[in-house]
Amino acid sequence: MSLFIEDKVLAKPFLKWAGGKGQLLPEIEKRLPVEMETEQIDTYVEPFIGGGAAFFFIAQRFEQIKHFYLYDINEDLVNCYNAIKKDVESVIKELKKLERAFLKLEKEERKELFYKIRAKFNNDRDSAKLIFLNKTCFNGLYRVNRKGEYNVPCGDYKNPNICDEENLRNVSDVLQKAKITHGDFEKSDKYIDENTFVYFDPPYRPLSSTASFTSYSKEDFDESKQIRLSVFCRHIDEKGAKFLLSNSDPKNENPNDTFFDKHYKGFLIETVKASRQINCKASGRGQINELLIINY
Ligand SMILES: C[S@@+](CC[C@H](N)C(=O)[O-])C[C@H]1O[C@@H](n2cnc3c(N)ncnc32)[C@H](O)[C@@H]1O
Prior knowledge:
Number of strands: 9
Bound molecules: S-adenosylmethionine
Shape: globular
Radius of gyration: 19 Å
Order of helices and strands: EEHEHEHHHHEEHEHEE
Structural class: alpha/beta
CATH topology of the largest domain: Rossmann fold
Largest sheet: 7 strands, mixed
C-alpha cells in the first residue's frame, strides 16, 4: 500500500515490525494536537520507534516540525535506520545482491541460503542482512535468544519484495531530519520541552490469553517498566509537553483490571478498535479494543 500526500509517494516503514501502527494511524491522526499545524510544536519525539509508521507519517505531513528524536532499545534496528540515513546506496547495493542470489533459487536452496545469511548476520550485524532476514523470515519477526542471536526461522513467501529501492531512498531523505539513538525511552527526556509532541508506542502490556508479544530484545518490557513509563509521562506532562500513548486495553478480558486508570489518572483515556492476532491460530484475528492516552 502506498501513502500519498498531494500526489507525492511517501516513505513508509521499510521493515515489518510486531505491533506496527499502520492500521491505528487514522485514529492517531484524528487526535494529534492542533498545535502540530502551527509553529508552536517544533519537536517530535518517538521513544519506541519500532517500524516507525507514525514517525514517517508525521515527518512528511507536518513540515514545520524541525527536530525529530527517535529512540529504540533494539540496537540492530537503530543501526539499520542510521545506515539508511547515512549511506542508503550501500545498503541498496548489498541488499540487491542478497535479493538476486535468493530469488533465483528453488525453495529448499532458498532455505539453506536464509540460514547461511542468518549465521553471518549474527557475526557482523550488517543492516542489509537485517532487512533481508526481515523480508524472508517467518512473519517478519525480530527475535533473539539469551545470547542475543537472531533466531527467527525461514518464512515461506513465493515472491518477497526484498529490496524496495524507491522506498529506501525516500526513507533516507526523511531520516535526514531525524536523530536516531539506541537506548532506553527515558534518554529522550533531554529533548522534551513545552514545544514537543511525544508519541509513545511501547511494547503492549500483555493480555493474559492473547498471543501478545513483548520480547523485541533481550530484555522484556515487564510491569515495572510499564509503571516507569507512566511516571515518565507524568514528568513530561509537568514540563508542558504534549503526549499520546498507545497500549493494549486489559478490559478486553478483565473489566476489573484498572492498571491504566490508576497509573494514568487525570489523563484522557480513549478506547479504539484494532484488528489483531488474538490467539496463536491463524483464525484468531479479531477486533479488540486498544487504548490511546492523551494529556491535552
Ligand atoms: C510496539 S513496538 C513499536 C511499534 C512501532 N511504533 C511501529 O509502528 O511499528 C515497541 C518498540 O519498543 C522497543 N523497546 C522495548 N523496550 C524499550 C525501552 N526500554 N526503551 C526504548 N525502546 C524500547 C522495542 O525494541 C520495539 O521496537
